[in-house]
Write a structure and sequence with these properties.
The structure is a single chain. The mean pLDDT is about 90. The protein has a 4-stranded mixed beta sheet with strand order 1-2-6-5. Strands 3-4 form a two-stranded antiparallel ribbon. Helix 2 crosses helix 5 and helix 10 packs across helix 11. Strand 1, helix 5 and strand 2 form a beta-alpha-beta unit. It has one domain: Collagenase (Catalytic Domain), CATH 3.40.390.10. The protein has about 260 residues and is of the alpha/beta class. The termini are far apart. It has 12 helices and 6 strands. Bound molecules: zinc ion.
Length: about 260
């Protein structure tokens, strides 16, 4: 009884939020025009994506940094792309953070590493985006915009990349293994990931063309993130190169974008 009351309350809250944050028709049309990979989706999928994006906008706090203005166009572009991976899973996957910080361009981050002798080394890293435990998610608007125009292979999409990291880190560790349904699913994921990652790392090492961004060879967590970009942007390419891994991602996301792209 109590849970039913809670459910009814949540539905009313969502409805009120939707009314306040509904995405206007013209802005939604513009967002779909900008993101061609969204246009492949069925009309009912896109309607649900629009609702989810509106709830996302209601629940998250966007801020601009280094002079970046977060216009409605910027916020809706990010929201629509961020919601695609959780279209069948729900926004609960993004509960661990609230803030999204948008920079005009790449962000230079000061990094430090400790070597085997205990000596600390500092270096600078240019980031197109970053997701960290507890948030915020940081994005470079230039990179978000450029991924809209990206036409080549491997796929490139910084929003999907960072939000895949958020999903991966939901269990506290960024290891390329998000929380999964059960032990059997975990085993299947592990096997598919290990196999695809080994193939990918080998190809990158040998300087051969790869189905996903070569950056994925940095580690299994990056491989999951770049594979997720391909899964949503160039699903046929990913399925052909890594069928078992594509199937694992398809079970996890509960989506089969290759079927719609075929
Ligand atoms: Zn990454």
């Amino acid at each position: 009884m109590f849970s039913r009351l809670l459910q009814a309350w949540a539905q009313r809250r969502d409805q009120a939020r939707l009314q306040r944050h509904a995405i206007p028709d013209a802005l939604w049309e513009l967002t779909l025009l900008r993101h061609r990979f969204l246009q492949r989706r069925s009309a009912p999928d896109l309607e649900r994506l629009r609702t989810l994006a509106a709830l996302f906008l209601a629940g998250k706090e966007f801020s601009g940094a280094a002079g970046q203005d977060v216009t409605d166009e910027v916020a809706v572009s990010i929201a629509a792309q961020a919601c695609l991976p959780v279209l069948e899973l729900g926004l609960g996957w993004y509960d661990a953070f609230v803030g999204i910080v948008v920079y005009p361009d790449e962000v230079v981050a000061r990094r430090e590493v400790v070597d085997d002798d205990g000596v600390v080394h500092f270096y600078d890293e240019a980031l197109s985006g970053e997701a960290m435990p507890g948030g915020p998610v940081v994005l470079s608007w230039r990179d978000v915009s450029e991924s809209n125009e990206w036409d080549g292979e491997p796929a490139y999409n910084v929003v999907i990349h960072e939000f895949a990291h958020v999903m991966d880190m939901r269990d506290g560790v960024a290891d390329g293994i998000p929380p999964l349904a059960d032990a059997g699913e975990h085993r299947a994921w592990r096997e598919a990931l290990d196999e695809a990652y080994a193939l990918h790392a080998h190809a990158v090492e040998a300087d051969l063309p790869t189905a996903v961004d070569p950056y994925g060879a940095e580690g299994p967590e990056e491989f999951f993130a770049v594979s997720s970009e391909s899964f949503f942007i160039e699903p046929l390419v990913l399925r052909e190169a890594h069928p078992r891994w594509y199937a694992a991602l398809s079970r996890f996301y509960r989506q089969d974008p290759a079927a719609e792209a075929a």
